[in-house]
Amino acid sequence: MGTNDVVVIHDRTSRRQPLAEEVASYVRELIISGEVRPGDFLRTERVAEAVGVSSTPVREGLLALRSEGFVQLVPRRGFMVAPFTRQDVRDLFWAQARLSGELAARAARQITAQQIARIEVILDRYQAAVEADDTERVAGLGHAFHREINLAAGSRRLALLLGSVVKHLPNRFYATIEGQVAATRTEHPLLLDALRKHQAHKARSLMEQHILAGADRLIQVLEERGLWNDQEPAR
């Protein structure tokens, strides 16, 4: 890149979501992080106050989560957090790992020097955000790193399918998990190197391993928080 080249990176957190999706994202994170437990009822007025919206988008967001299996609608009582298991967590990460691995392999075969340069900028900014302990930017730049790889794959439909899986996972919360950021600081540069060398098989393998390891870290955190209370045997 020349000195006059400008690379514009948009963090995930800088884009305003539709109100109902903001509600859904907020409640998903409460559920996956263990801040609310299966069987808890969600008070719509508290959700509305926390997100800063009216009751209508709250109901729309909760209905969307009902279709995703995160909540149940109990007649005359409201929305209740649905049960979810360790295997549910593993399944989400497995699906993300397979789709992301395929996209990484496709990206490695055709990625351009300009796309590599954008990823390098993101990675530098990510490392700086980690040093500054800025978890909000760590989350946003981590998302941006993966987004650039997905775009480089040139497979829009597959990327959209991945997006429907990824939204189930707690982006900001996940950036605070002990061990996750440390692992990412090592794994992201390895991924970038595989992309730079057009090593499709290696890029796929690294991406799948990178994401699957996250399932174990998240499950460990949720176990420590007593989410399942020994109702489900650990594997």
UniProtKB/TrEMBL annotation:
SUPFAM superfamilies cross-referenced by the UniProt entry:
GntR ligand-binding domain-like (SSF48008), Winged helix' DNA-binding domain (SSF46785)
Q: Which UniProt keywords apply?
A: DNA-binding, Transcription, Transcription regulation
This protein's record includes keyword Ubl conjugation: no
Which SMART domains does the protein's record reference? FCD, HTH_GNTR
The residue ranges of the HTH gntR-type domain are: 17-84
User: Key word Cell cycle present in the record?
Assistant: no
InterPro entries this protein is in? GntR_C, TF_FadR/GntR_C, Tscrpt_reg_HTH_GntR, WH-like_DNA-bd_sf, WH_DNA-bd_sf
The name this protein carries in UniProt is GntR family transcriptional regulator
The root-end lineage is: Bacteria, Bacillati, Actinomycetota, Actinomycetes, Kitasatosporales
